[in-house]
Amino acid sequence: MSAKPATGPMCTRDSLASDLRAMGLRPGETLLVHSSLSSLGWVCGGSRVVVMALLDVLGDGGTLVVPTHSGDNSDPAEWGYPPVPEAWWADIRASIPAFDARTTPTLGVGVIPETVRNWPGAVRSCHPQTSFAAVGPRAAAIVDGHALDCRLGEHSPLARLEEGGARVLLLGAGFDSCTAFHLAEYRVPSPQTDNSFAVMTPQGRSWATVRETSISADRFDDLGAAFEKERPVVRATVGGAEARLFDLADAVAYAEGWLSEHRPRTATI
Fold first, then answer.
1. How sure is the predictor about 268, in pLDDT bands with cuts at 50, 70 and 90?
2. For 229, phi and psi rounded to 5 degrees?
């Protein structure tokens, strides 16, 4: 049986960089990227070439940021894809490896963030579930100080990105992947919840539970559709991918109002 032929378009480092410049990416800016490699078409060199193209466009003065989340470091009682037997829960809590910013792999955010995580000079924030990795002159300032009880709020890289005037690039990814919307959840009435994970402390590995804001991407697709109708969002094609580019602070501010009106959440979990 013959393998299926590759499908296009064919993308190279130069062609991707050209498409990114054409949609308005600027040298020296700070850019948060949510991405899907497969949406681009056939990329000659794979995810490494996508990162190269992004860095080419941002230049030496620009900073590239990606989510490097690892949501499997969590309470097995909450796992549903797939669930595990309750009889295993205690052993999982006792033995799941503690988060290590150097070695813990990403999960569920695509291959491009994993590539950035391993890029020379990359630095990574230290939240066990919702870390971000960055490359560039502003990288350390963006990822420092990510609090254990603040997945995507005021003490996370998202707030530092907002302060620094970053923009968001959805590269073949939908608004349901837009982490910036979560920052708004910390600024409107939201439930509080317990969140657990394995961390490394000076005394060794520990299973920790913190109390913090509950987050949910429910209706983020609706939120995004409303946002791009009312606010400036650049839409373009990069390779074969639909791409969107917009100001992070603008997205957060819009989401605060939209979530309060269309998706109120006040019950304690």
1. low
2. -80, -30
Cβ contacts of 82 within 8 Å, gap of 6 or more? none
Residues whose CB is less than 8 angstroms from the CB of residue 97 and which lie 6 or more positions away in sequence, other chains included: 73, 104, 198, 205
Token duo for residue 11: 């993308």
198-215 pLDDT, tens per residue? Answer: 999 999 999 999 999 999
- Tell me the DSSP string of 164-218: TT-EEEEES--GGG-THHHHHHTTS---EEEEEEEEEETTEEEEEEEEEE----T
pLDDT at res. 201: 92
Exposed, middle or buried, 193 (CB in 10 Å: 0-12/13-18/19+)?
Answer: middle
Closest among 106, 173, 96 to 133, alpha carbons compared: 106
Distance, in Å, from the CA atom of 185 to the CA atom of 71, rounded to the nearest integer, reads 19
What is the three-state SS of 3-57? Answer: CCCCCCCEECHHHHHHHHHHCCCCCCCEEEEEECCHHHCEECCCHHHHHHHHHHH
Quote the DSSP letter at residue 75: -
Alpha-carbon distances of 256 from 42, 154, 161, 229, 268, rounded to whole Å: 38, 14, 17, 16, 19
Q: Is 140 exposed, middle or buried (0-12, 13-18, 19+ CB in 10 A)?
A: exposed
The rounded distance, in Å, linking the Cα atoms of 86 and 71 is 19
Terminus-to-terminus CA distance in the chain, angstroms? 53
Mean pLDDT of 263-267: 83
With pLDDT > 90 as the criterion, what percentage of the chain qualifies? Answer: 94
* DSSP-based three-state secondary structure for 123: strand
Q: What is the mean pLDDT of residues 175-200?
A: 97
What's at 15, amino acid-wise? S
